[in-house]
Design a protein that fits this description.
The protein is mainly alpha-helical. It has a domain at 85-267. The chain has 9 helices and 2 strands, in the order ββααααααααα. The protein has a two-stranded antiparallel sheet. Helix 4 packs across helix 5 (154-180), helix 4 runs parallel beside helix 6 and helix 5 (154-180) crosses helix 6. The longest helix is centred in the middle third of the chain and has 29 residues, at 115-143. The protein is globular and about 60 Å long. The protein starts with 36 loop residues before the first strand and ends with a helix. This is Protein YIP.
Length: 269
């Protein structure tokens, strides 16, 4: 006996059915201790270093470039200014003997050094003390060979205080002067480097000043002084404004010339 089938409407419900729970906000939950990774992994050359995490990006962003300066009294802070080779130093020494070029500042702009300042100043101190005594001995033999001649140790003290003081204090003074006049931004290291190499010509001149001829000595020291003064004055043009250049360059020129006269009068008279 057939029984009629009843249609199940859209509104009818099955007995025992449970309606699905639908939430409006679907939030991503990051379980505690989970570490999200970004695919693909970082490839360095031909080797896979592993997957990059979100924390790695944050750490790389927060890293700042480190500076080589570790304090005024730290030796490692000045090691970068002695990182020069022989060819570079020789090139700068030859440039100091060509004072009219005025391109020395461009050669030291990328890598100024203090090696020239220390080495040239120390060599000049010993040359002035030793060769000054030698010149005094030769002049003594020419004038009066009967008396006894004695080595003057005071030459070492005067030479050291004069050269080291001049090479350190004068560039420092001009550094503050250029900053006060509103010149271009320049580091003190570049000024020390410039004045240090300007003294190299006096080392060469000191060997010739031993010749016991007074007129020749004056000619030699004036030529060396003019070369050194011109070298400093022309290279200062890159750091000084045009209106202030005559004052700064002129005073630097006279100081270099005064140093040369002092060397002649005190050590080779």
């Amino acid at each position: 006996m057939e029984e009629p089938y009843s249609n199940i409407g859209s509104s009818s419900r099955f007995v025992g059915s449970v309606p699905a729970a639908i939430t409006e906000d679907k939030r991503n939950v990051n379980p505690e201790g989970a570490n999200l990774q970004i695919f693909p992994p970082i490839v360095s050359g031909s080797r896979i270093n592993g997957y990059q995490t979100l924390n790695d990006n944050t750490n790389r962003t927060e890293q700042q470039p480190t500076s080589n300066w570790k304090g005024v009294f730290s030796i490692s802070s000045y090691m970068q200014y002695f990182n020069v080779d022989t060819d570079l130093v020789l090139n700068r020494l030859l440039s100091s003997l060509n004072p009219t070029s005025g391109d020395f500042v461009t050669k030291i702009d990328a890598n100024p050094d203090l090696y020239g300042l220390v080495w040239i100043s120390t060599t000049l101190v010993f040359c002035m003390a030793a060769l000054g005594n030698c010149a005094a001995y030769l002049m003594h033999r020419r004038s009066d060979g009967s008396t006894t001649w004695a080595f003057d140790v005071n030459y070492v003290n005067v030479a050291a205080s004069t050269i080291y003081g001049y090479a350190l204090v004068v560039p420092l003074g001009y550094y503050f002067l250029v900053q006060y006049m509103g010149g271009s931004t320049v580091s003190l290291i570049r000024f020390w480097c410039l004045w240090g190499y300007s003294l190299f010509v006096f080392i060469l001149a000191s060997f010739l000043l031993v010749i016991p001829i007074e007129l020749l000595r004056w000619i030699l020291i004036l030529v060396a002084g003019l070369a050194s003064a011109t070298f400093v004055a022309l290279n200062l043009k890159s750091y000084v404004q045009n209106a202030d250049f005559p004052v700064v360059a002129g005073s630097a020129f006279l100081l270099q010339l005064a140093l040369s006269i002092f060397i002649k009068v005190w050590f080779f008279s």
